[in-house]
């Protein structure tokens, strides 16, 4: 090729995408991955996505029986799901998990970073271990899985990433400095990742639940529930509905947002 | 004179740049990627395409060295030998 010569046009058989950032339909044969989907909010999200027609990879760390039950519930409703074990807090796991999902269900069009844990204590008495494991699980896994799936999503010109944050983070909650730091960071990460890939048809949003009745919150004093304007804790299905919407084609112009599902607690 | 492998690399890179929105008539060896409105996200995607098609892994420092279309073709052609 000589300098300044025009390079030959693309072969007609090469697929082209001429309009970047324009919403497209979900790629055929693609699936959803939900981390921490054996129980609680994750389970409800997996069920809701399956109801919307997504094959779902149900990731779990230790609750294999619960994950199997989630898969069984999806299959009983006519959906398709597989349970895949993996502790996403381990930095080596996210890439392996994505590979396993690829092999078993296909490319990932929807990623829900739901896996999370609490290790509460006043900031002045938190241990380094409690700090680190909360950050590794809630924030580190979100970053590593997002990084991995974005590579395929930008190529597909379609992707939906929903990160589960919390009202704790944007708002203070004594005894949860580590959890709050991780969740506030998830929201900040969500916004920046979203603007980086917006023109490739990939959306990245956060859903911030308030007080939701799950195993994870059963030890929280009932008095907290009285602070909720709705005067009741939320149900996992109510969080899942918001996630399913953001994962849908209908939410194609919503990105970098945080949707609060908290009965008015954050107002 | 370009061999068939280099021609294939040129083709793949050109196709990718057009996909990213560059004007095909402006894509020449000497064209600067910045002038073609190719940004860091485009380069990240181009690196993936190159890795898939030619098995050449470009590091972020390799990518930082690529200023023109010719730079991209040359580095891939050299590594794909």
CATH classification class of chain B: Mainly Alpha
> What is the helix fraction of residues of chain B, given as a range?
55-70%
Look up the CATH topology of chain B.
Non-ribosomal Peptide Synthetase Peptidyl Carrier Protein, Chain A
Number of strands of chain A: 7
Shape summary of chain B = globular
Total count of helical runs of at least 4 residues of chain B: 4
Beta content of chain A: 5-15%
The parts of chain A where pLDDT drops under 50 for at least 5 residues are 1-20
Derived structural class of chain A: alpha/beta
- Mind describing the biggest β-sheet of chain A? 7 strands, parallel
Q: What share of residues of chain A is helical?
A: 25-40%
* Number of structurally distinct domains of chain A: 1
Helices and strands of chain B, in order, run as HHHH
Number of strands of chain B: 0
Biggest interface found: A-B, 23 and 25 residues
Keywords:
heterodimer, A: 267 residues, alpha/beta, Rossmann fold, seven-stranded parallel β-sheet, 7 strands, 39% helix, disordered N terminus, B: 81 residues, mainly alpha, Non-ribosomal Peptide Synthetase Peptidyl Carrier Protein, Chain A, 4 helices, globular
Sequence-ordered SSE layout with sheet pairings:
The complex is a heterodimer of chains A (267) and B (81).
Chain A: E1 31-34, H1 40-51, E2 56-60, H2 64-76, E3 81-85, H3 93-104, E4 108-113, H4 128-156, E5 159-164, H5 177-197, E6 202-209, H6 222-226, H7 236-247, E7 258-261
Parallel strand pairs in A: 1-2, 1-4, 2-3, 4-5, 5-6, 6-7
Chain B: H1 4-19, H2 40-54, H3 60-65, H4 69-79
Helix pairs in contact in B: 1-2, 1-4
